[in-house]
Design goal:
Chains A, B: Pathway: Amino-acid biosynthesis; L-arginine biosynthesis; N(2)-acetyl-L-ornithine from L-glutamate: step 1/4; Amino-acid biosynthesis; L-arginine biosynthesis; L-ornithine and N-acetyl-L-glutamate from L-glutamate and N(2)-acetyl-L-ornithine (cyclic): step 1/1. Chains A, B: Its main location: cytoplasm. Chains A, B: This is Arginine biosynthesis bifunctional protein ArgJ. Chains A, B: The record marks 116-117 as: Involved in the stabilization of negative charge on the oxyanion by the formation of the oxyanion hole. Chains A, B: Keywords: Acyltransferase, Amino-acid biosynthesis, Arginine biosynthesis, Autocatalytic cleavage, Cytoplasm, Multifunctional enzyme, Transferase. The structure is a homodimer of 405-residue chains. Chain A is of the alpha/beta class. The first copy, chain A, folds into two domains: 17-273, L-amino peptidase D-ALA esterase/amidase; 281-400, Ubiquitin-like (UB roll). Helices cover 34% and strands 26% of the residues of chain A. The first copy, chain A, contains eleven helices and 18 strands. Chain A has helices at 57-68, 86-104, 125-138, 144-150, 203-216, 250-273, 292-303, 306-313, 319-328, 360-368, 394-400, and strands spanning 17-22, 34-39, 44-49, 73-80, 111-118, 159-167, 170-179, 192-197, 200-201, 221-222, 232-237, 244-245, 281-289, 340-343, 346-350, 353-354, 371-377, 383-390. In chain A, the strands form four sheets. A seven-stranded mixed β-sheet of chain A has the order 10-18-13-17-14-15-16. In chain A, strand 14 and strand 15 form a beta hairpin. In chain A, helix 7 packs across helix 9. The radius of gyration of chain A is 22 Å and the shape is globular. The interface between A and B is large, with 66 and 67 residues.
Amino acid sequence: MAVGVKAMPPLGAIAGVRLGTVAAGIRKAARQDLVVIQCDSGTTAAAVFTQSHFAAAPVIVAKAHWRQSEPRALIINTGYANAATGEPGLADARACCQALAQVLSCRPDEVLPFSTGVIGERLPVSAVIAGIPPAVGTASEDGWMDAAHGIMTTDTVPKGATCEMVMDGKPVRITGIAKGSGMIHPNMATMLAFVATDIGSERPVLQAALARAVKTTFNAISVDGDTSTNDALVVLATGRSGVRLTAAEGPAFTQFCEALEQVCAELAQAIVRDGEGATKFVRVEISGARSDDQARIVADTVATSPLVKTALFASDPNWGRILMAVGRAPIALDDPDRVTVSLNGVRVFRHGMVDPDYREEAGQKALAAADITVGVDLGQGHGRAVVHTCDFSYDYVRINGSYRT
Amino acid sequence: MAVGVKAMPPLGAIAGVRLGTVAAGIRKAARQDLVVIQCDSGTTAAAVFTQSHFAAAPVIVAKAHWRQSEPRALIINTGYANAATGEPGLADARACCQALAQVLSCRPDEVLPFSTGVIGERLPVSAVIAGIPPAVGTASEDGWMDAAHGIMTTDTVPKGATCEMVMDGKPVRITGIAKGSGMIHPNMATMLAFVATDIGSERPVLQAALARAVKTTFNAISVDGDTSTNDALVVLATGRSGVRLTAAEGPAFTQFCEALEQVCAELAQAIVRDGEGATKFVRVEISGARSDDQARIVADTVATSPLVKTALFASDPNWGRILMAVGRAPIALDDPDRVTVSLNGVRVFRHGMVDPDYREEAGQKALAAADITVGVDLGQGHGRAVVHTCDFSYDYVRINGSYRT
C-alpha cells in the first residue's frame, strides 16, 4: 500500500556515475538484491549516518572509509542489515569492500558498504562477492531505475527523484534514489538514500549543503518513531558538468542547496507515502512556537502519537487527540487558550474549545482526503516546523507482526 | 481483551468512605456512569493530576478545590471528558460540584469533580445533576465494587485492589479502584484512580507517601505513549482505624508507603493488562544504567516502540528491534558491546552480537507466554527502572479507529 504515489519520474543520468544491479541470491532467490554504484576519480562525497548506539557494521565501516578517502564505489545489499553482528559483522563488511576494490582496482577504503534487512544475522559474504563481477559488468549511467528497485525491502514502490537547473549557463543535474518503509524516524538520514550530481565541490561545501537539506527532509519524516541502525545518505559530486561550488555561501550555493533539498524532499516524502500500512500522507505543520526547535518537538509528538495516527486511519476528525498530543509535548506552553488547531485548513479548535463555526461534516470531508495537513498554531512566537508522517493501520501491525516469518 | 487478569479481589470497606453508583444516562442509556464518593469530616486527601498543557476542566477545578480544602466528596462521570471545553466546561464542572454540595450540605470547594470519555464535547450537566440524589441515596461503605464498574469506559474489566496490615497493633486497610485502557502513559497519575485508607494523616505526609508510590506504579506504565488530559489519582485518609501517620519518615511511614505502593502497583498493572487490544503483559526491566533516570529513559523508549510492540504481538523473538529501540534512546551509551538483552531470562544478545548459546526455539518459547520480561543491562552502572506495558495488536487499531462511531 502506498498513498498518492506518482509514478517515479525518469531518472536523469549523472555523468561519471554508473550503477549495476543484480540478483545475488543474498536472502531470497531471483530478487534484485545487490547494487554497485561506481563514480569517476575526482568525485567528492558528503554523507550522514544513523546516530543509533547500535550503528550497523556497514555504517561503521562506511563512516571510517569515508573519513579517510573520497569513494570510488558504493556497494549496497538488501536481505541482511549486518547489524548487531559484532566483530564478525565488521569483518564481513570489510570483505565486501575488499572484493569490490579488487575488481575495480581501487583501495578497499575507497569503497563504502551499505546493508539493509534483518538485524542480528550474519551477511552471506560469499553470495555478495559472487554478485560483484556481474554487477560491475552491467553498470551503466542509465542504471538508476534498476538500482531504485534493487535497494527495496518492504518498500512497495521504488523511490527516485531528479532535478535539473542551469548554473553559470551550464546544465546541472541531481538524481537520487532511496529506500525505506518502516523503522523510519531518522536521526541523521533515513534508511538508505543515494544521490549524485554532476556539479563539482570540495567535500566541506558539499557536506554543508547536505546538512542543510537533510534537516527539513530526511530528518523531518516519521513512519513509526523508530530509528534504524542502518540509516545512511550519501551525495556524490562528480564535477562532470563543468560547474563547481566554491564556497558554502552565496547565490550559487543557495541555488544548489534548494535543488538538493527538493530532491531530498521528494525522496523522503516518497518514503512516508510508502510507509508500512500507510493509507494517509500527513503533513504536521506547527507554527507560532517560541522557536523552530520548539515547533519541531511538538510536531514530533503529534506525528508519533498512536492515538492521532489511528484516528487518521479511521478518517475520524477526532481533534481531541491532536490536542492531547500537543498537551503532552515536553515544551513550555504559556497560554493553552491561544492554541488553534486545523485539519486541511478547517479550523476546529480555538480559545480553549471547539471553534463555534466548526461543523463535524467539514471535518469528515477534510479527513476523507488521502493527503492531510494537521495545523497547530501555538500562539506564542514565530517558530515553525513541518514533519511528514503517515497513519497507523491494521496493515502496519500485520506487516510488523509477520516480518520475519 | 485483557491479559492474565485475575478476578478482582473482594474490596475491603474503608470506615468513613461511602460510594454510590447510578446509571444517569450521561452518554449511553442503562450504563452505570456516575459515581459519588463521600468521606467523613476530618478526612485528608493527597492527589496527583495530569501535567498535560490541556488539563480538562474537572482537573482544573479539582486541583483548585483540593488546594483550598479537604474534600468531603468526589463526583466522577464517564461518557464525556469535559476536556477542551473552555470556560463553559469549567462552569459545567463547577455546577456539578455545587449540586452535590447542596445535597450533602457542604461547600462546593469541598467537592472534587472527575470526568473521563470523549474530548471536546460539553458535559450534559442536567443528567449529572439529576443522578446525584440517587447516587447519594445508595452510597454505602460496601459500594467499592459497583464504583469500580461505574468508572469504566473502554476498560473490559473493573480494577480494584485491597491491602491490609497491622500498625501499632491495630488493623489498617487501603482500598482503591482505577480505570483506564488507552491514552495511557501517565505523567503524574493515570486516568482515574481513587484510593482510600482508614489511617489518619496530615496532608503533607499523605502526599509524600503518594508521590513515592506513584513514581514506580502509575508513572511507570504505558499502553500507547499517549498522556491523557484527565489523569487524576486521589488518596483519602479517614483516620478511622485510630492509627495516625505523624511524619514522612520512620518505620511506620515506610510500612504505609509499601502498602500504598502495592495497591497502586496492582491498580496500575491491571490497567496495562486491560490495555486496548493487549494480548501480552510486558515488563521492561532496564539495569546497569548510570542512574535510575537514565534507565527510565531507555525503558520508556523500548516500551513505546511500535516495532517492539508489534513483534511482541506476533510472539516473535525479534530481539533486533529491542536493540534498535535501545539504540535510539537519548542517553549517553559508552560501550554498546557491554549491553546484554534477555527475553524472560533467555539471554539473546551480548558482546555486540547474538549470544552463541541462544537458540531461536528458546526465544519462541519465551515469547509464547502471556507475561514477558524484556531485560536490558546497559553495563555502565547500577541504575534500574521497570516500566510495564503491553503489545500493539490489530485490536488497538480497531478500538482506536472506531472509538467515536
